[in-house]
């Protein structure tokens, strides 16, 4: 029954992706690949809790380690992210609901509106990474051929923003042909300067047909030798209380 | 009466030690007040002139506009605004600028810096404020992606003329954009407000910010005739409102200051979906209003210190006068015996104190003028740091005014007369017989 439901949702995703592509004048093949990928990475139907460790390395500086706990509910387009380590960051957090992202600062007990764009703890990892993907809504896509990335044959999908309120107006996604999961993502500025590269190193299945990355390397292409390694541990899919997805929860946790 | 005044004048240095002891107090108080007022006037003038030359106009137009529910900082349709201003004041010089904060990358180093995009044809105000030490202004003008940067920035990065820099900024809509600029000039300046500014071309910076062709950050209006600026602003408000803009005065001093200090635009989302352009017109006095507050505070501190010293002087005058009268009983008795009236004796002693005060006040002010001449023309100081606010081309800006001198003299003379009156009245009330008796 689960497999049948998965196949149906996949079919619907493909159709929606294709129609969306046609409505925006994009490549239907590319849109289909993106739709398949999003279907695997978006975790509707279950809540996910996990702990991320971020290690940022900068030239000439000591490594910086940050631990965050994330509560994710893609069906409602919400997540709550809570800093657990180091002490200086403890109590800070992000709350996202739809397109609105709020940063909570325990020192001033205020929520700062971020509008979806922010780097987590000033690392090379953006908060976009933790939520549901919706690339076809924000970008037009083109199929740019095939490339081999780290022994994987990948479809190369070019993304161009349809509105300028996204962080990276130009992107390139390298998606494995074998399982439609991304291997590498290149983020460019509006003038097509490479700003950031993210390597998806490993995945873990959360449910049949649904995957969560467990290791990611984000490289800052403007700052020499600056990169952040992300590890995703302690992944659980138990139901999360609704209260967790609220600003009040963040305030309470910081006390 | 005049005879007693002449006598008073001759008695100023009768007791030299006592006169000089008291006179030094007058000297230093008048010198302190003169320098404080001159400095505050100079600071105010210097800051106003420097701001007008670099970061504001006699009237500055700033604002925000709403497009499809999103509010963006800046001016939309600035060519139309320029034409409205030109129609109202054909002789005025109008200059629009685009300002952006951007990260600059060069050989492994990065720093966030402010860029001001100018129309190089009309950016004469800035050109006059800088001295190019490498490269040339013409080279900058002739290259669309050229920049002229200050020596401090060049030194930080180790940049030389003709080097290329990478800029990366988050545009007004949220998307990152990058651009490459080439250094075509390195400059030094005595203008405190230009020290960290990188001068670039208006169109280049606007394109970097992904803004449309009719957008600017601010528009500056410069008049040849600086009279009635508030009235001129009122006329412009009317013209712009008639032209379809929503134009208003700044709500307060901080609003006016933010009009000239805001760099990278921010955007905020509202529920309304109206298309609107809101303008704020700030006069230079409003922009520098905070300077007036600081200046008033400095004047206040100076006055407080002077008040403490004046209180000491007042007590000295009182004691000094009592001692003098006690010592000159014979003289008082003689004067009263030959027909001097009570008021003549009182007037004589008051006049003595006042003349003494005037001599040393004049000395203090003259010495102050000498110091001003030295610090304004000969002494040179480094312009780095906040000291640059007080300097023009390395010299302190000190502006003495007639009103300040008049006020100092009037205040000190009034104080002297007041505190001399009571002991002088005591002296005047003594009869000839009493005075001569006491003297014996």
SSE order and pairing:
The complex is a heterodimer of chains A (255) and B (440).
Chain A lengths: L1 H23 L3 H14 L5 E11 L6 E10 L4 E8 L7 E5 L2 E6 L4 E4 L21 H4 E11 L2 E10 L8 E7 L5 E7 L5 E14 L2 E11 L5 E11 L10 H7 L2
Antiparallel strand pairs in A: 1-2, 1-13, 2-3, 3-4, 4-5, 5-6, 7-8, 8-9, 9-10, 10-11, 11-12, 12-13
Chain B lengths: L1 H9 L5 H39 L4 E9 L2 E4 L1 E2 L1 H11 L4 E14 L2 E10 L5 H4 L2 E6 L1 H5 L4 E5 H7 L6 E7 L5 E14 L7 E5 H7 L6 E2 L1 E5 L6 H14 L3 E3 L4 H9 L5 E3 L6 E8 H4 L1 H39 L1 H9 L4 H37 L12 E2 L2 E2 L5 H28 L2 H8 L1
Parallel strand pairs in B: 5-10, 7-9, 13-15
Antiparallel strand pairs in B: 1-2, 1-12, 1-15, 2-14, 3-11, 4-5, 4-8, 4-12, 6-9, 7-10, 8-9, 16-17
Helix pairs in contact in B: 1-13, 2-11, 2-13, 2-14, 3-8, 11-14, 12-15, 13-14
Your description of this structure?
The complex is a heterodimer of chains A (255) and B (440). Chain A is an alpha+beta fold. Chain A folds into two domains: 2-44 and 130-236, Lipoprotein localisation LolA/LolB/LppX (outer membrane lipoprotein receptor (LolB), chain A); 69-127 and 238-253, Clam (outer membrane lipoprotein receptor (LolB), chain A), CATH 2.50.20.10. Chain A has four helices and 13 strands. In chain A, helix 1 (2-24) crosses helix 2 (28-41). The longest helix of chain A is centred in the first third of the chain and has 23 residues, at 2-24. The N and C termini of chain A lie far apart (45 Å). With 440 residues, chain B is of the alpha+beta class. Chain B folds into two domains: 2-50 and 290-439, no CATH class; 97-214, Beta Barrel (Barwin-like endoglucanases), CATH 2.40.40. Chain B is built from 15 helices and 17 strands. Chain B has a six-stranded mixed β-barrel with strand order 4-5-10-7-9-8. A two-stranded antiparallel sheet of chain B has the order 3-11. Chain B is elongated and about 100 Å long. Chains A and B meet through loops of A and strand 8 and strand 9 of B.
């Amino acid at each position: 029954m689960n497999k049948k439901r998965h196949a149906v949702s996949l079919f619907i995703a493909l159709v929606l992706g294709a129609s969306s592509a046609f409505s925006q004048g994009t490549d239907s093949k590319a849109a289909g690949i993106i739709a398949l990928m999003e279907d695997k990475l978006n975790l509707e139907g279950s809540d996910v809790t996990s702990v991320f460790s971020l290690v940022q390395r900068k030239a000439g500086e000591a490594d910086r380690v940050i631990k965050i706990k994330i509560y994710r509910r893609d069906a409602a387009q919400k997540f709550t992210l809570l800093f657990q380590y180091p002490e200086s960051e403890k109590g800070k957090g992000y709350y996202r609901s739809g397109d609105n992202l709020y940063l909570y600062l325990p020192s001033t007990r205020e929520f700062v509106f971020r509008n979806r764009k922010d780097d987590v703890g000033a690392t090379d990892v953006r908060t976009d990474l933790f939520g549901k993907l919706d690339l076809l809504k924000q970008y037009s896509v083109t199929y740019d051929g095939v490339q081999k990335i780290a022994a994987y044959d990948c479809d190369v999908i070019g993304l161009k923003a349809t509105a300028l309120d996204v962080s990276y107006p130009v992107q390139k996604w390298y998606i494995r042909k074998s399982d439609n999961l991304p291997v590498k993502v290149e983020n460019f500025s509006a003038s097509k300067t490479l700003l950031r590269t993210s390597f998806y190193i490993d995945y873990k299945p959360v449910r049949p047909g649904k995957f969560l990355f467990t290791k990611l390397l984000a490289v800052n292409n403007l700052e020499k030798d600056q990169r952040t390694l992300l590890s995703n541990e302690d992944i659980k899919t138990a139901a999360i209380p609704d209260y967790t997805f609220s600003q009040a929860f963040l305030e309470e946790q910081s006390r | 009466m005049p005879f007693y005044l002449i006598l008073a004048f001759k008695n100023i240095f009768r007791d030299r030690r006592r006169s000089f002891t008291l006179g030094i107090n007058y000297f230093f108080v008048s010198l302190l007040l003169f320098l404080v007022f001159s400095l505050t006037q100079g600071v105010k003038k210097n800051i106003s002139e420097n701001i007008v030359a670099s970061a504001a106009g006699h009237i500055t137009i700033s604002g925000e506009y709403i497009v499809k529910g999103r509010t963006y900082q800046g001016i939309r349709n600035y060519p139309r605004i320029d034409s409205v201003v030109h129609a109202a004041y054909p002789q005025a010089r109008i200059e629009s600028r685009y300002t952006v904060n951007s990260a600059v990358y060069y050989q492994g180093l990065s720093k966030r810096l402010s860029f001001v995009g100018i129309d190089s044809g009309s950016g004469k105000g800035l050109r006059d404020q800088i001295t190019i030490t490498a490269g040339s202004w013409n080279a900058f003008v002739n290259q669309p992606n050229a920049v002229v940067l200050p020596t401090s920035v060049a030194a930080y990065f180790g940049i030389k003329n003709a080097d290329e820099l990478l800029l990366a900024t988050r545009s007004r809509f949220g998307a990152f954009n990058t651009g490459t600029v080439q250094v075509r000039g390195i400059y030094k300046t005595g203008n405190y407000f230009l020290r960290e500014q990188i001068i670039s071309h208006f169109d280049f910076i606007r394109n970097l910010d992904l803004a449309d062709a009719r957008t600017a950050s601010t528009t500056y209006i410069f008049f040849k005739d600086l009279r009635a600026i508030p009235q001129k602003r009122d006329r412009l408000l009317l013209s712009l409102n008639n032209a379809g803009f929503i134009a208003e005065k700044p709500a307060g001093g901080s609003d006016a200051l933010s009009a000239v200090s805001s760099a990278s635009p921010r955007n905020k989302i509202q529920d309304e979906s109206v298309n609107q352009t809101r303008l704020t017109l700030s006069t230079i006095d409003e922009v520098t209003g905070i300077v007036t507050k600081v200046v008033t505070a400095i004047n206040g501190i100076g006055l407080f210190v002077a008040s403490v010293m004046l209180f000491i002087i007042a007590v000295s005058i009182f004691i000094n006068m009592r001692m003098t009268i006690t010592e000159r009983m014979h003289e008082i008795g003689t004067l009263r015996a030959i027909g001097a009236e009570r008021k003549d004796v009182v007037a004589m002693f008051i006049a003595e104190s006042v003349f003494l005060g005037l001599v040393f006040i004049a000395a203090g002010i003259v010495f102050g003028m000498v110091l001003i001449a030295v610090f304004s023309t000969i002494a040179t100081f480094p312009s780095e740091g906040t000291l640059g606010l007080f300097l023009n081309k390395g010299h302190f800006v000190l502006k003495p005014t007639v009103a300040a001198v008049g006020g100092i003299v009037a205040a000190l003379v009034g104080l002297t007369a007041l505190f001399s009156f009571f002991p002088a009245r005591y002296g005047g009330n003594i009869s000839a017989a009493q005075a001569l008796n006491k003297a014996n």
